[in-house]
């Protein structure tokens, strides 16, 4: 036992830098073979994926909690960007803003009233009746206020706004707001499903993610729904402005680079710098937490829940904490991603891409190891992006004998697009089976 | 005030579709509950299993149609069903051998099985998309209606029509036969009883000489049949869309848990509870209310409690209520 | 050699040994009773005899044959039946189905055996169509014993069959167990109610910390002042 431990810790040390160096080489290869723009795109999304993986790793690696709602928490982060950084739409606010706020207060108030009265009522049939009256009455009051407010707001210039807009704050503020929104949703789910069978948390998170997405797609007054929100503010300069900037043009001239390509690379590098800083802060904070008494207790609980419970530890309470924290990190990353995209497009959120892919990242990287999560995030994102062109290239080579327009060739190329789902599943299964501790095992 | 018209409208738009949908959910939930009872994990790949089974049926149906084979008024898909079940059974047995068996041997914790099943889900999803792509496919043929809305109006003299699609009738009939056969198997045959025994008390089943690997194999075979039938009926009733099955996972799980996970009777009841709640809460009652109330009452709005876009919220809300107040479900499954 | 001969068993659940050289023998048609303080390893000894625990040392012979390497299922085929201390029924199956599952390995007609169990335990007959999980503690134990009898074992092993039942039901259960023994079935039984159990025992074992502390006939152990003082409460 102790021997095995020392063995892994000695082999982990040189392994991590090696893997990260290999990762850098892979990205550089894309830079040389395809373009530096693609390479940096992969890097940036890889970094964001790494943060999401850190959040999932906190929940799974530290506490053994299976979160199937990563997509939902990511999407809440995206919503936070809209609500925080877009300018408010004064016409919409005056049309129905007040009523909307009132409607939401009534909705929340109804639920709060029900939750507060429930334990105070006698345990008779009366309790059910009173509760039903509160909930049904509250629901109709809510709808009576909500429906006209929605109609009024959505009628305001629907082609360009038709929603309330945001608070017009700098977009960086949206990131912690995204964390808060995700934490709130996670708290609600965990409060109900934790303490029951482990599968139930998974199923409940699956549900909340679907609902968050439904809200984003359908509540136009809030998020413009499927009409998307474009032109989100950025924390970095716009390429077009850079291209007119004296200093920047001078820099490009010195480097001998085309200012158009150069500006886009420059912007991506700025993003990469910000993302790296975020990762650094999160990893350091998590490593410190892991080594604190709190982290040790977390792992003790994970490794033997029954014994910890018997020793008087509040297992469910700790799990709640960690689940909410993990979701907050995912929400933060979700906000970063939407900021990077510059738009919120609710229809692009797919569970396979936003939930299960993150899981593949954590498992492949090494559950319980933060550096592993970062590595897994970068590597799997790289594969996710590159499996398709590589597959298409292979098919092209294999079918080079066939005519260009042949049905077989077209069919094969179409199939390749779906290859990556299969590949990711196989990777997940193979790693779980043959190397369950991942690339960088927990120390 | 027109009670008859209101009743017909309600039947046409709520009762009939919810019964068909409930049958499909019940079959799906039965599969989930059997796996839970015997293998003790929530199978996240179940939606994709349904999709795979339905896909094979769609393909074989196409083949039969091209040969000119048909069942007359009944959809050709019924003829293709056994082939779908067979293919799915092979796939599931293979998956069990290659994937799950190992985790049984090392006695992995339940959540590990759940994660592994998501890996299987990915693979099956990719497989289906690679074979048929992502397009919508309609594959029902034969007579479209058993009762036609126009004929019904003419016959009854009412304003409201009542339509009964062939696929709806077939869904309910096939589901009833399937459920009856399953319950007969579980309650009357020696093998079925040994499955229940294993689900009830694994250690005692072993002491009684019941072979666990055989029980697991039979379970996968039953699950293959249930999933393929459920997927096919859903596809017949609406249309076959590969990605829809992932979204069915939530209502199917909700149905199984509401009924009491691990309890087959509960799964059937849960399926109908979820389906009826979903359809009722998302139905626009404007017509019904208009018929029932005096003219001056006619509502402006749709009188719809919830937009259909939120039908998943219904499953979710019911799930949460059950988890909060009765985690063992209505029929007392093996919970917590 | 005796019908069951488990000698010098040593082993545990992976960690430290629980059994430290425990020996148990039962003759044909005899009732042997194991008593001892909580945590002494009585249940562990039963599991070891039944092959549910890997022995580090020692051997188990049944009717002269070495069965040390056999799995529990194989021991069922050899004529051993076991009623575990807890979880010894199929709760959502009917009482009759419980009996049928007990006879799962049999290929011949099981109806006569079911009749015998019904005769032995009239309460089981009465409740035959109810789910076993809905029965009272005493009735459950009868179902559990009945289930084990369904294989027509030559050796019946019972781990605390009277745990949690009323004194009247306990007496009745003991009577039934004597009846079973009279049909020629050997019985190895763990009991908390040491005094009553030793009264019906042909042979008694007092187990302390995984080893035999006293071994004698039931009557002699009851008469032994040392055993009385330490284990029977005076
Ligand atoms: N499954 C198990 N795994 C590990 N230790 C066990 C297990 N079952 C029992 N033990 C330990 O073995 C010892 C003997 O237990 P047991 O045989 O059940 O005692 P008894 O039946 O005499 O009360 C106890 O210390 C108990 O904690
Ligand atoms: Mg014991």
UniProtKB/TrEMBL annotation, chain A:
Q: Where are the transmembrane segments?
A: 12-33, 39-58, 65-86, 98-116, 128-146, 166-188, 200-216, 269-290, 320-340, 352-371, 378-398, 418-435
Q: Name one GO cellular component term.
A: plasma membrane
Cite the entry's keywords alphabetically. Cell membrane, Membrane, Transmembrane, Transmembrane helix
Output the Gene Ontology terms for molecular function: branched-chain amino acid transmembrane transporter activity
Q: How does it sit in the membrane?
A: Multi-pass membrane protein
Q: Quote the InterPro entries the UniProt record gives.
A: ABC_transp_permease, LivM-like
Protein name in the entry:
Amino acid/amide ABC transporter membrane protein 2, HAAT family (TC 3.A.1.4.-)
Organism from which the protein derives: Celeribacter halophilus
From TrEMBL, chain B:
Q: Which InterPro entries is this protein grouped with?
A: ABC_transp_permease, BCAA_transport_permease
Name the family the entry cites: Belongs to the binding-protein-dependent transport system permease family. LivHM subfamily.
Which membrane topology term applies here?
Answer: Multi-pass membrane protein
| Record-linked PANTHER family | BRANCHED-CHAIN AMINO ACID TRANSPORT SYSTEM PERMEASE PROTEIN LIVH (PTHR11795), HIGH-AFFINITY BRANCHED-CHAIN AMINO ACID TRANSPORT SYSTEM PERMEASE PROTEIN LIVH (PTHR11795:SF371)
Specify the domain of life of the species encoding this protein.
Bacteria
User: CDD domains recorded for this chain?
Assistant: TM_PBP1_LivH_like
Q: Sorted alphabetically, which keywords does the UniProt record give?
A: Amino-acid transport, Cell inner membrane, Cell membrane, Membrane, Transmembrane, Transmembrane helix, Transport
One GO biological process term is: L-alanine transport
Q: What's the name of the protein? A: Amino acid/amide ABC transporter membrane protein 1, HAAT family (TC 3.A.1.4.-)
Task: Give me the segments passing through the membrane.
Answer: 20-39, 51-68, 74-94, 106-128, 168-186, 215-236, 305-325
CC terms in the record's Gene Ontology section = plasma membrane
Recall the taxonomic lineage recorded for the source organism.
Bacteria, Pseudomonadati, Pseudomonadota, Alphaproteobacteria, Rhodobacterales
UniProtKB/TrEMBL annotation, chain C:
List the InterPro entries hit by this protein, alphabetically: AAA+_ATPase, ABC_transporter-like_ATP-bd, BCAA_Transport_ATP-bd_LivF, P-loop_NTPase
- Transmembrane regions: none
Question: What is any Pfam family matched here?
Answer: ABC_tran
- GO MF terms held by the record: ATP binding; ATP hydrolysis activity; branched-chain amino acid transmembrane transporter activity
Domain ABC transporter intervals: 4-234
What residue ranges carry the coiled-coil annotation? none
Specify the protein name.
Branched-chain amino acid transport system ATP-binding protein
**Species:** Celeribacter halophilus
